[in-house]
Amino acid sequence: MRRTPRGRRAREDRTVPQVVAHRGSSHDAAEHTLAAYVRALDEGAEGLECDVRLTADGHLVCVHDRDLRRTASTAGLVSTMNLAELDELDFSSWKSPWSGLDDEAPDRDPDDGKVLTLRKLLETVADYDRHVDLAIETKHPTRFGGLVERRLVETLSDFGWDGPGSPARVMSFSLNAVTRVRRLAPDLEVVLLVDKAHHWPVLRPVAGADWVIGPGIQALRDHPGLGRHLVKEGREIHVWTVNTADELQVCLDLGVTAVISDRPAYMLELLGG
After folding, report:
1. Is the per-residue pLDDT at 52 higher than 90?
2. Mean of the pLDDT values across residues 112-136?
3. CA 204 to centroid of chain Cα atoms
């Protein structure tokens, strides 16, 4: 029988999709930094999306790329570095490299640009003055394999967020990762991400009946049949990464229940929020 957690039922009752901030309000602030997430919350984002990777000493950190060249100007690999080493790096200057020369730029708290642990993000959400969902993506392949999902479920358990009604859902492009999460936490909502339209016919027979499906907006635009098939099958759909009015309209036409965006404030404005 199809399970329907409380969080999902609330989204199905909505007339517009939930707006989820992709790596925080990452159009305007450095992705995965505390500043980006606080900005997204201040803008009214209803959910926060993050990618997690495991450090060499077993901490989950919010970092997208396996190496740090793009966001921290170093060739180091997240999986081979300890949290203390990552904590020495600047994860925000790449976004506004000339801000130090701008006399009118606001002073920046150095801590806002440090590596963000998942635990700190969960604490921020737990302490916020309204309900906020979390969409947590585990990245694969990784040298730690299934340990990533095990650590993630353990961390969610510390907050009491590994069962029915949890504000968190776990996403991955890896079928094995999603299956693993459902085995470790049977009542936790999961999202199977789909990058290419032609992947869905292969994934469809093995995707759980109550799994959310997360196609990319480009796949939906290039292959309209994908969206039609998902709707016909009664699948709940969460779409990434939706940043324009035209992209949002594609989602509205399909009746998706969540849009993941670099520009949460703009999406909320378009939706009349």
Report:
1. yes
2. 96
3. 22
Rounded distance between C-alpha atoms, residue 270 and residue 158, angstroms: 37
Report whether 61 contacts 116 (CB < 8 A): yes
What pLDDT is recorded for position 238?
Answer: 98
Whether 163 and 170 have beta carbons less than 8 Å apart is answered as no
- Is residue 108 predicted with pLDDT exceeding 90? no
Q: Which residues contact 39 (CB under 8 A, 6 or more apart)?
A: 24, 25, 28, 29
Q: Is there a contact between 202 and 226 (Cβ–Cβ < 8 Å)?
A: no
Pick from 84, 79, 104, 108: nearest CA to 95: 108
Q: Do residues 229 and 206 make contact, with C-beta atoms less than 8 angstroms apart?
A: no
Amino acid sitting at position 214:
G
- Main-chain dihedrals φ then ψ at residue 268, nearest 5 degrees: -65, -40
Type and span of the H or E element at 267: helix 264-270
17 and 268 Cβ atoms separated by less than 8 Å: no
- Catalytically active residues are 22, 64
Angstrom CA distances, 101 to 113, 114, 173, 254, stand at 18, 21, 40, 46
